[in-house]
């Protein structure tokens, strides 16, 4: 979810409408100089107040994805980002202490109404030591590079040679392989984005002024009497433990012959301003133990989500040796848990410790490649420090796929963050190049993170009218936010591992909470083939389906409803055909400028 980005830099739409701002550079200078004076004198000049009035974030926009800001508003966000970083990097270079920087940034964050003081304080306390470490050890890092990495937009471009890089990809040609279907199928379950909240309080406060609600201790801010549901809540609330247990139980009791369970990450809650090593470890250990107890001898292939890290999103490169700052604790924990439960062989340990990724072959002719794509997330501050192929993962991916091709294997790739625009541009580009080269053996990809029921269709590089790969998104087991909880069952070919159909299973959270004493009524929401009336899930059929989406409003609105997992809480918002098309355009993935033509 996007809240974090907003928390750090976003500001007001008012800016877009004010004619006072003519020139961006001038604006950065003025704002920087006013922050400077304010920090030095502790007093708010009239100019400072005027700027703040125009730049302050309305609380109603706290949770709006900055991606949805366009034009001048996106300019303005970039202006604030650069002003704030320019100013504080300068202060730091002149010797300001970490504590002084922290208290000033918290004051500014609160004063600009970016979040409550408690949240500003928590977020800065967790993140500043890492940001300062990066700024201190990399003196040539500029505010415009930092903001360019975070926003990567037209108004906030990334212009820095160090931030462009490539990996070595075998030039081919791809080996021709016999990819015929077999008559037999296997069942694969995908569970993703559980977001278990140990602080979840049924009947607590569902509408608080913090990034996530329904948590113990938030009653006092309960102003409009929105009460947290027993099984979860459509507001910004994560999952209570009994809902986590329920979804796992439901899957075990309902589906026979499960060959594999893919768990694609995000166990930890959205309390991003107050995570801790201890809290994350407890949630991770408890959830994986429950998954193990539930499925016992069914193999589970897990990956980590951006929320498993502490602080959230931050995955450090190997060269950072301080245990306070690096990610070794998480890689150690995951390697131990995943291997000790018997899910992964010992041979996976070295790459998990290297960066949270691994590969194995569960069966002859079939390979799973599990990535830690969280390193590419544009809010992973460590990208500023070491942008080039973090933890050596993409080179390893290219090499692993080359070997798989030689060995005649079909491959499934698991990755939490989808290869969309939230992923650092060079990482995304190199990833797409690799997928394109090995498209014949990668028969499916599985993502999580967005919580929506969606997919990515990859257009081939040399023939941009052909689809040559697909990434399915598993949705989310949590209702966060305004969604129904779900999981997916993939029916795959037992020989080439291509997905032949998908069942989305969910429950109506409103109904579940009305009958809180009973377990939720899970039901098959739809089969992809039936719902969209397509003969199979071949790339040709998916291509036809995509063309139909563009023409057929009825089909498009069906896709839109499923995208939000039929939750009234989301569907009650106005969305006309143009608005729905934006959700269709998210499907299109390519190296070229395909998506820009989609609207
Ligand atoms: C900010 O807003 C005030 C009115 O609230 C307006 O007079 C002023 O011109 C705006 N622009 C700047 C850059 O201060
Ligand atoms: C900044 O420093 C890094 C090494 O710390 C170097 O690789 C990079 O090229 C430098 N960037 C610029 C713009 O000088
Ligand atoms: C918050 O509300 C819940 C449910 O009504 C109640 O059980 C709990 O005691 C309340 N907590 C506080 C601190 O008031
Ligand atoms: C499970 O798989 C076995 C062997 O593949 C098959 O005989 C059996 O009918 C399957 N059971 C169900 C319920 O699909
Ligand atoms: C995980 O929890 C179990 C108890 O359920 C405990 O024995 C084990 O030490 C825990 N592991 C970690 C790494 O905390
Ligand atoms: C691209 O693919 C389409 C459909 O598969 C085919 O008709 C066309 O000839 C291809 N073009 C090139 C340049 O390969
Ligand atoms: C969910 O249940 C509520 C309450 O019974 C009902 O109003 C709503 O239409 C249901 N939604 C779906 C998608 O079935
Ligand atoms: Zn998530
Ligand atoms: Zn995520």
TrEMBL record:
Instruction: Provide the leader sequence positions.
Output: 1-18
| Bridged cysteine pairs (disulfide) | 78-156, 109-120, 208-213, 214-237, 376-423, 575-579
Keywords tagged on the record: Disulfide bond, Glycoprotein, Glycosidase, Hydrolase, Metal-binding, Secreted, Signal, Zinc
> What are the GO BP annotations of this UniProt entry?
ceramide biosynthetic process; sphingomyelin catabolic process
Read off the PROSITE patterns from this record: SAP_B
Q: Does the record's keyword annotation contain Metal-binding?
A: yes
User: Which residues take part in binding Zn(2+) 1?
Assistant: 193, 195, 266, 451
Look up the record and name the cofactor or cofactors this protein needs: Zn(2+)
> Where is this chain primarily localised?
secreted
The protein's GO terms of the molecular function aspect are: acid sphingomyelin phosphodiesterase activity; hydrolase activity, acting on glycosyl bonds; metal ion binding
Using the record's annotation, list all stretches that form the Saposin B-type domain.
74-160
What's any one GO cellular component for it?
membrane
Q: How is the cofactor bound?
A: Binds 2 Zn(2+) ions per subunit.
Where Zn(2+) 2 binds, per the record, is at: 266, 306, 416, 449
Q: Which reaction does it catalyse?
A: a sphingomyelin + H2O = phosphocholine + an N-acylsphing-4-enine + H(+)
CDD domains per the record?
A: MPP_ASMase (cd00842)
What Enzyme Commission number(s) appear in the record? 3.1.4.12
Under Pfam families, the record lists: ASMase_C, Metallophos
Q: Where does the record place it?
A: Secreted
Major enzyme class: hydrolase
Q: What does this protein do?
A: Converts sphingomyelin to ceramide.
Q: Which family does it belong to?
A: Belongs to the acid sphingomyelinase family.
The protein's name is Sphingomyelin phosphodiesterase
Source lineage: Eukaryota, Metazoa, Ecdysozoa, Arthropoda, Hexapoda
